[in-house]
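Bug: token stream looks shifted between consecutive jobs. Job 1:
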Amino acid sequence: MQAARLRGVLPRLAFGLALLVSLVVLFLPGSGVPTAPPGTDKVVHLLLFAVLAVTGRWAGVSQVPLAVGLVGYAALSEVLQGTAPLARSASVADLAADVAGVALGLLVWVRSTRRAR
């Protein structure tokens, strides 16, 4: 019974942790964002949203609501990044990387679950 309960909790913990990491990464004030080579931020956005999509599916969130929620979260994060208190800039390219990450994560989930069957 304990192992079954852990199997149910672990995916939700992973998704929650991914959400927590995303909050830090997306809403860190501009002064706290490390410098990196050009384009690195797009890779971070893509991977972050791919991880959110995979862990969300693992946690049992249905594909369409998860995709809609993550794309909405991506759009909202870009709007909020463009506000004065964060001193960051909103970017359509970052939003595109976020959406691509959601699509990639969902594709990885579908492919990995098909192989497991």
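Job 2, same session, no restart:
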Amino acid sequence: MGKFKKNSGGGTPAISTASLPDIVFMLLFFFMVTTVMREVTILVDNQKPFATEIKKLEKKNLVTYIYVGKPKKNLQAQVGTEPRIQLNDAFARLGEIQQYVIEERNAINEAERPLMTVSIKADEKVKMGLVSDIKQELRKAEALKINYSTRKGEVFGEL
């Protein structure tokens, strides 16, 4: 019979770090793929109104946003306190909406253009007259799929 010898002086072997770079790059790649960068810097206050019946948008890449509200506090000295329209990263006038929608529509794949939705993210304190004027400009641009961004909840307060 053979003799078995006890190895008493070896201790625990060192942990191999050969696969560590692979793990680091795999995590880096994962976070690069899954992270969504903010596309637009919001320049207006945007407290969305409450709604009881809401529906989530299906394809967010086919949604064009129009922000409406009072300028943020740090911009009020430059542009005033009246509600403003924001298209992408800049303030705009009503007359610029039609051209903006046409440009956004042309940037979309031709097969998906009929599915394009314009989402109006209006502050709850914005007068409906301004929102109605925006809708008129959207009609001129033939953007007839309109969505109002809201938050879920019961409507409280005065009507």
